[in-house]
Amino acid sequence: MTALTLSTTAAPGLRADAIVVGVAKDSGSKSGDLVVAPGAESVDEAYDGKLADVLGTLGASGAEGEVTKLPAPSGFKAPLVLAVGLGPRPEKDAGYEAEVLRRAAGAAARALAGTKTAGFALPVADAAGTAAVGEGALLGAYSFDAYKENGKDADSRDGKAPLGEAVLLGDNAGDEAHKAAVARATALAEELNRARDLINTPPNDLNPAAFAAVAEDAAEKHGLKVQVLDEKALAEGGYGGILGVGSGSAAAPRLVKLSYTSPKAKKHLALVGKGITYDSGGISLKPAGHNETMKCDMAGAAAVFAAVVAAARLGLEVNVTGWLALAENMPSGSATRPGDVLRMFSGKTVEVLNTDAEGRLVLADALWAASQEKPDAIVDVATLTGAMVLALGSRTFGIMANDDAFRSAIHEAAEEVGEEAWPMPMPEHLRKGMDSPTADLANMGERMGGGLVAGLFLREFVGEGITWAHLDIAGPAFNESGPFGYTPKGGTGSAVRTLVRLAELAASGDLG
Ligand code: BES
Ligand code: MN
Ligand code: ZN
Predict the structure, then answer these.
(1) Structure confidence at residue 494 (pLDDT)
(2) Residue 354 CA: which ligand is closest?
(3) CATH superfamily membership of 3-174
(4) Which of 36, 71, 133, 213 is the most buried (most CB within 10 A)?
(5) CATH of region 195-378+413-508, choose from 3.30.540.10, 3.90.1170.50, 3.40.50.170, 3.40.630.10
(6) pTM score, two decimals?
(7) What's the gap between Cα 201 and its chain centre?
(8) Residue 286 is a catalytic residue
């Protein structure tokens, strides 16, 4: 992966392939529309203070994510200057928002694929700025090339290898807070990128057992406790939801429990992830056009996995247990049929009316299992419903909860780390749509508000009195259009940063 370092070297003297500077729109100014952002003063000086004019001549507009390359001024060790658009210049002294820096660094890192080293001279005012540029660079440089003949992601970066090293330039490079920001950004981005790798891995290579093996490896490497329930253990334990979903596949399901414990922990956070390694729909088969990207249906489990490992790497003073509910949803002679009744781990019975509503079935068992430990809070993450994508689009995840304050805290945490999220209601009247003549409830209800119905189903499997939230990441988990900012095509790592932030808040006693 791309390396992240700090340096006090002035931009002209940095041995690198490129120097990244920021350019903003300054509509208020008389001199022109563009302004070079702070942090790049030495670069601007080398262009005789005319860098903004030069960029204007080259057609730059300062729009967010716009990339303009130009030859470096004479005397520079680096041959290239890359100006990245930051959007509108902030109000005087207000400073650039972290997310603006994250996206700009991401766009620049992506544009620098094929180069070894780049110096980033973006407007960083404090350690939070360093964190944002660092995260953006590492996340934006990501590429998934494991299946490319030449080992390169030819699709999104013209066959070029990702940027080798991002050097963050600034006077504060020696500062402990900035060093800590780089360490955090590195751990976070590495684990988030690993989640992206898992999501992008084709389902013939990542089935439930393979995912469980990846978790076991990580547990060994990072000193986590791991427990894997295979199909036999699941049967003995009565995990009817996970078994019912997995019964159609030749690749048996798994329930993975991954525990990070800190000796200083005062709180216990449980994270539950939907891990459908492929969702064909089962007997209620999805039509062509709806199943091509369904390898992404384990993105919730990937996010939970990444967050637990990141919490361990960051040494957070909180206990975090990750539950990965892994199954492949396939049609076959042994598959669950619409009309079957499953006896869930909680003891409740569920009539399966649509085998494509499988996520809630595996999550139900994992939520109940998580509840048995009486954690302070449970957060589940799932690519659960197409309805949520219709409601919120492809970049925003929905948050539901049995506690208003907890839902708000998660929304705030998401905003803080630069993830788009929105609170969704849990209207009680939708519950009766899941009444079943045969079983305790059905896995389907009213079609309208389908994302909310799914949330109400999950609520039935959360232990009494436990604070719980559900993140439906069906929209943002997998980017089917072009890359933007630090978000690549394919698996995005949605919810990882929010989950890690929640663990940090729980550690500092600031989460409920
Ligand atoms: N994995 C899908 C949801 C999904 C849709 C994820 C689009 C990512 C992108 C889920 O298992 C599913 O099929 N949900 C059904 C539920 C319905 C049958 C009640 C849906 O949303 O159509
Ligand atoms: Mn489905
Ligand atoms: Zn699914």
Answers:
(1) 99
(2) 1
(3) Leucine Aminopeptidase, subunit E, domain 1 (3.40.220.10)
(4) 133
(5) 3.40.630.10
(6) 0.97
(7) 16
(8) yes
